[in-house]
Design brief:
This protein is an alpha/beta fold. It has ten helices and ten strands. The chain has a single domain, classed as Aldolase class I (TIM Barrel), CATH 3.20.20.70. The radius of gyration is 17 Å and the shape is globular.
Length: 237
């Protein structure tokens, strides 16, 4: 059986929903500190809050850039990332320009990943490149993104934001998030030094262990308390 710390250090505790109040964000940071997660992934305006609460702990401050649609200009994304790092974020999850991916403008996509990653790394932080796989009906796009990331070597590639809802055949809007198919593809096609983050639909310890077995080293989760509590109940120490 894995140590409890192995489970907790796979979790980026997600505090990104637009309705989350300052009190909710504060309590979420305290919870993440208590459970010693890998990071708190918090809304950009609250990076300072997270840094203050997490000071003295091993929980890192993470935030998002170009979130959730990836449509900001390259210059805007770089400024967002630099501002977040200046405020204390050490992990930056950014969404690729989805329209450019679907347009197959690979020069633009490659430049964006390269320049944002370089800017963040130069400030002592790391990047996680969010593909937003639900928008791609063909594996071709995901494979191409893996190929580009192999060139520029971000720390992580990430499946989803968890906030891009696709119109389904029945007319409802939903998302698949981190599917086993996509996680296997990303782990197989990205070089070993690039880690995989699963986000969207990882809500239980069983989900976490399943994706861990596929090579995932981080998950984005709002159900952190439930996952850790389940692990403790099962005897993880």
């Amino acid at each position: 059986m894995e140590k409890l710390s192995v489970i907790s250090k796979m979790i980026d505790h997600s505090l990104l929903h637009p309705t989350f109040t300052d009190e909710f964000l504060r309590n979420g940071c305290i919870l993440a500190k208590e459970f010693d997660t890998a990071s708190v992934c918090i809304k950009p305006y609250a990076v300072n809050l997270a840094k203050e609460i997490l000071n003295g702990s091993s929980v890192k401050v993470c935030t998002v850039i170009g979130f959730p649609h990836g449509s900001s200009s390259l210059g805007q994304k770089i400024m967002e990332a630099e501002s977040a790092c200046a405020q204390g974020a050490v992990e930056i999850d950014f969404v690729v320009n989805i329209g450019k991916v679907l347009s197959k403008d690979w020069v633009y996509v490659s430049d964006e990943i390269k320049l944002i990653n370089e800017a963040v790394v130069s400030l002592g932080a790391i990047t996680k490149v969010i593909f937003e796989n639900d928008y791609y009906t063909e594996d071709y796009f995901k494979l191409k993104l893996c190929e580009i990331c192999n060139l520029h070597k971000p720390a992580f590639v990430k499946t989803s934001t968890g906030y891009s809802f696709i119109k389904q055949p029945d007319g409802n809007y939903n998302y698949l998030g981190a599917t086993d198919h996509d996680l296997k593809l990303m782990r197989d096609k990205c070089m070993p030094l690039i880690q995989i983050k699963a986000a969207g639909g990882i809500r239980t310890l069983k989900d976490l262990l399943r994706v861990k077995n596929l090579g995932v080293t981080r998950i984005g989760a709002t159900a952190t308390k439930e996952i850790i509590s389940e692990a403790v109940k099962l005897g993880y120490q």
